[in-house]
Design a protein that fits this description.
The structure is a homodimer of 374-residue chains. In chain A, 74% of the residues lie in helices and 1% in strands. The first copy, chain A, is mainly alpha-helical.
Chain lengths: 374, 374
């Protein structure tokens, strides 16, 4: 029953480098093999459940950069994990299970954010809403779609654990992994909860926005994945500390870059309409910085920012808000934060005991995450 | 960090009998000890998350009969588990983790069913909707409440696994437990999904209603909990088969009794308004049996049943529908099913290798579940 009992093949997962298409393919193969192990228990409940589970599988396999498995795999390699060794397949399976946690997070987040599309496809709740509508069923199609999406997100979360248990890891490695896995899930759910709460309560502080970045993004995307890889390799505490510093700093810097691109990014490069984050009213560190500065120097600018974000802004209004954010010094402040965090994160890795190859790769990943234009 | 490292005390969990208040208290002590192990990682995210986690803890500790841990514990005892032995505390911890899966199921089900109260308290989504309203926050209070409840249900599901990992079980027992745990979670989520689908698509068949009972109730409440206990005790396959037969049959019979009480129960005994299941339009096996019989003998009665259930029925209308269900022979058919299933389930246990004490207790639990009046 375990996907972890397969033998690694020569051309298999273990030679791939995170960030490459080959690595993404290796993760997708591990996920596909796991889904295959669920087929029988799903089929026992009949075709309705089979259809729903297939929708989940399509969602998981539809793409994404496999960032979290990539950092976990790098954490393992950097702590001396041997990609040609006997544990490699089990480690890759366990790392790939992060994509199932991520599937739950995305499916449930899309309900919470009322998002209609993801990766150019309808979100899961919208997909099932549409199936209900097409068949002319009883009740509210939107509520049906949300109900199915809640359950499919739960299934992804449960299956994430099952994939870890079935990964083929030996018990001691599984126990080390489980402790970090527990922290990571609590942190990401807590981060999402702080985000939902902050938006409702109108918390405008920089500290609140940074805290959400830390737990919803940095811990979940970089810090804990690296930590998971380190735990699998039974790394020494000093390397784990270095990974965690790097992960927290680079993870937050990554999100701050994202915030800047959401307002100033070139639509031709990002693929998203310019200024969309302003129209959606996202409470980013950028906006929090601007409001904090406005409170001291220009209260009217703060009032204008508060009044306009989250509304259907014209291109001209977006341009004016960009000037306002820049004029208040918020953009410079965020760029300075990104620079400091990146420097700190890189220094932690440079001075660590990570392998030279891992240092090179993590440096490249940090710069790609914090200096990107899309 | 593990709640499972504590030593069992003389007056502790291990002497309690499932179904008694003492057993419920023992389960609640295990849960309280587990929640205490989460305090630090929750507090790291700040008071907003602490408040939310406390709401989850209150929900979990607020009561319930601890039925699932009870069957799991009985499964372990009946397969020779020693309640005074060194494994007992770890086993009780693992069994108690079922209450966290149940918390997720209830919190998410209450969103799906639009339920406003549970155990006389507001449901989790209604609680947080009200907090939003009381504070006069931004956005839709109902959507806020649902968002928080989705995340707290996810947290309960993640913590259920964490509690199993931290239970103190040795690796081999943990691996046996995990395989059954995986089946159980997939089955209950699949059963909920079939239920949501059946209600929307208007599937009226007896087979569909029985299938939902099997996976949403029987497998999740009796069969797999017993199986989990047996797996912990490393029981032989014949005993596992007997447990599973008993669990499936008694679990379905339990739900059929519930269906009858939902229509014919005495409000003074059940504590619920008489005929509430008819007003809610529940698609039970009882209703499916009636519709199947009406199709053959009295199509007009079927049309009337379809038209009236799910509406705001008067006492008189409820009385008339009761007569209709009885007149069609649906009540007798369901009673006959309960009798057959109970007999089959009891026979499986009688002829099994379960301990004499476990046979007595499981017989009593079966009769209590299938012959009750509330």
């Amino acid at each position: 029953m375990s996907a972890g009992t397969g033998t690694p093949t020569r051309s298999g997962p273990t030679s791939a480098v995170p960030g490459t298409a080959a690595f993404a393919t290796a993760v997708e193969q591990a996920l596909t093999a796991f889904f295959a192990t669920r087929t029988d228990s799903v089929a026992e409940l009949g075709p309705v459940f089979t259809d729903a589970a297939e929708a989940l599988e399509s969602f998981v396999l539809r793409g994404g950069k496999r960032t979290r498995p990539g950092f976990a795999w790098m954490g393992w390699l950097g702590a001396g994990g041997d990609p040609a060794g006997p544990q490699a397949t089990a480690v890759l399976n366990a790392c790939s299970a992060l994509e199932l946690v991520q599937a739950c997070a995305l499916i449930h987040d899309d309900i919470i954010d009322c998002s209609r599309t993801r990766r150019r496809f309808p979100t899961v709740h919208v997909d099932f809403e549409q199936r209900h509508r097409d068949r002319g069923w009883t009740g509210d199609p939107a509520h049906y779609g949300e109900s199915v999406a809640i359950l499919l997100g739960d299934l992804a979360l449960a299956w994430a654990d099952d994939m870890v248990h079935d990964s083929g890891l030996p018990p001691a490695a599984l126990a080390r992994f489980a402790a970090v896995w527990a922290r990571m899930r609590t942190e990401v759910l807590g981060g999402q909860l702080l985000d939902v709460h902050g938006e409702a309560s109108g918390d405008e502080s920089v500290a609140a926005a940074l805290r959400i970045n830390r737990y919803k993004t940095a811990a979940y995307t970089v810090e804990r994945p690296l930590h998971l890889g380190a735990a699998l390799a039974d790394a020494d505490p000093a390397l784990i500390t270095a990974y965690r510093t790097y992960g927290t700093d680079i993870g937050i810097a990554f999100q701050l870059r994202d915030d800047l691109l959401g307002v100033f990014g070139d639509p031709a490069v990002t693929g998203k309409p310019s200024g969309d984050d302003l129209r959606e009213g996202k409470r980013t560190v950028l906006v929090a910085e601007a409001l904090a500065r406005a409170a001291e120097t220009d209260p009217a600018a703060g009032d204008r920012l508060r009044a306009e974000i989250g509304t259907d802004l014209s291109e001209q209004q977006v341009g004016a808000l960009r000037s306002l954010l820049t004029g208040l010094g918020a953009v410079d402040a965020v760029e300075a934060r990104i620079a400091t965090l990146t420097e700190q994160g890189l220094r932690a890795i440079e001075t660590s005991s990570a392998t030279p190859e891992a240092k090179d790769r993590l440096r490249a990943m940090a710069l790609a995450a914090t200096r990107r234009t899309a």
